[in-house]
Amino acid sequence: MTLLSTFMSFLAGGLPKLLAFFQSKSDNKHELEMAKLQNERELALAAQGFAAQQKVEEIRSDQIAMQAQAATQAALLNHDIEIGKGASTWIINLRASVRPVVTYIFVADLMFAGVAGFWYAWKTGVPFDLMLTKIFSDDEMQILSSIIAFWFGTQAFQKK
To answer: How many domains does the chain have?
Structure first.
């Protein structure tokens, strides 16, 4: 009985995975059929000279996406404004300065560590190439690149 219940429990534990496999297989089949139908539709429209209509639909889709993004941004800004209502100016400014202050602290720490490391390596006679690998580690550069990407990269992508 113990073996049978263990075996049944093992099968029951794998049942969601098995069902997910069949669901995924069904979904993939449906997606493939939809892609074929859309491809046939596009070929038929192109044969009839409706390729320009497709461009209009793409432009309209882009406009809708931009409007949705603008609405999301406006909702986020309104949310921030609502949170700040009733708070003192000092608290609002403190809340707004958290990310920049953390960035300033990290960059100042990086600069201090770099200058101190350079000075120490110079005084102790460490070779320049070894000094650079010690001062500018891969971990520090990854963190710095993440900060730069956050502050400058997100702005560039939002303007598209």
So the answer is: 1
